[in-house]
Amino acid sequence: MLKHAVVDTESTGGTPEISDSLAFRSSPENTIGVELELQIIDPQTGDLAAGAVRILKACHEEGLTDVTAELMQSMIELKTGVCRNATEAKQQLNPLLRRVRNIATSLGYQLAWGGTHPFSRGVVGAVSPGERYERIQNRLAWITYQRVVFGMHVHVGVPSGDIAMGVTSMLVQYLPHLLALSASSPFWHGEDTGLASCRTALYRMLPHAGVPRYFRSWKEFRTFYRVMRDAKSVESPKDIYWDIRPCPSLGTIEFRICDMPATPAVAWGLAALIQCLVKSTQRLLQERPHLCRGDIRRHWVALENKWLATRYGLGAVHIRTPSGKRGLLSQDIKDLVDQMKPIAEETGDASLLNAVRPGKDYESAADRQRRVFRDSGDWKALVGDMTTRWAEEL
């Protein structure tokens, strides 16, 4: 993704190498960037196929530089540049998705949307060439092949590291909401896991993954990073896989909690909702700076609520307050979307939010996958739905 940032607004201290990696580059506007991880499918078997090298070569020959490799050769990533809002991200990605799908089809592949492949055995996957991916494979060993999972990442620009930490601390409470809306990975290795998002459970095996640590300031985060760097636990901020993480070189907060949604409409709705959450929270923090210190109770409760969303998706009964009051997560999401509508009117994305407001007939992606498989009893039929549904919506 293109850099959001233009100005280094904060001194980091420490060694020059560490200082450079933690210089938070200000994004004066809450600009947005979206990244989508797609599955590469063998149409004959319905299984994942190691087609990334061929697809990427063809894409680059056509000048499509916003299509890149990911950890496994059975996935590719499409990404936007810096966008004013989710509508602009949609306008950038929709034509790119059509072209990449056509290229993949011409090479004998299909592309699927979803958080996991329903029956593929990840242990037979091929890791993409590249120094970073080789380092990941050496570090993670067997766990590397449990990372054959697919997500949607959303970057939102913020003006400073302190604001980034404050917004993160305020928004951990909404991780379950974003996860439940995107959950699309009930199957793993040909079995129903009973989870709405198996991807989330698998990702938790990684070091430095999950709900972010609690920091009261950018200075505290710098201290944490310096300790991890000196201990050789991480080499760069990219080695921190939290559900929300700061990206200082871009001047953004990156939301990594979402499964790869089942359809473009849900993807754009999630992007719009995330931008609205950041924009409204930043305004609150600028009006009441003391709130940047955060509330550690949100992190405690978020851990349990994230599990409930992982397990039950939109059907979760989650913890609404630190005192233990509970309620339906789906109702909380409706209320949240309604609260964000005025902000979405400002950004120009109000219509996109309709796709992520659960209603009486709203079917989650995880529920749809279970229904399609149980109606057909055929894994290939399910994969067929995952490859055609998104393309038909485009």
Tell me what you see in this structure.
The protein is α+β, with helices and mostly antiparallel strands. The chain has a domain at 7-34 and 80-87 and 156-387: 2-Layer Sandwich (Creatine Kinase, Chain A, domain 2), CATH 3.30.590.20. Helix content is 44%, strand content 15%. The protein has 13 helices and 15 strands. It is globular and about 60 Å long.
Task: Map the helices and strands.
Layout: E1 7-8, H1 16-21, E2 25-26, E3 32-41, H2 52-61, E4 67-69, E5 75-79, H3 86-106, E6 110-112, H4 131-140, E7 151-157, H5 161-171, H6 175-182, E8 187-188, E9 191-192, H7 198-203, E10 209-210, H8 218-230, E11 241-242, E12 244-247, E13 252-259, H9 264-287, H10 296-312, E14 317-319, E15 326-328, H11 329-347, H12 365-376, H13 379-393
Parallel strand pairs: 10-11
Antiparallel strand pairs: 1-2, 3-5, 3-6, 3-7, 4-5, 7-13, 8-9, 12-13, 14-15
Strand content bin: 5-15%
In CATH, what is the class of the domain at 7-34 and 80-87 and 156-387?
A: Alpha Beta
Order of helices and strands: EHEEHEEHEHEHHEEHEHEEEHHEEHHH
Q: Can you name the CATH architecture of the domain at 7-34 and 80-87 and 156-387? A: 2-Layer Sandwich
Overall pLDDT level? 90
Low-confidence residue ranges: 1-18
Structural class: alpha+beta
**Oligomerization state of this entry?**
single chain
Radius of gyration: 20 Å
Overall shape: it is: globular
Approximately how much helix is present in the residues? 40-55%
The CATH topology of the domain at 7-34 and 80-87 and 156-387 is Creatine Kinase, Chain A, domain 2
User: How does the major sheet shape up?
Assistant: 7 strands, antiparallel
Distance between the termini: 23 Å
Number of strands: 15
* Count of alpha/pi helices: 13
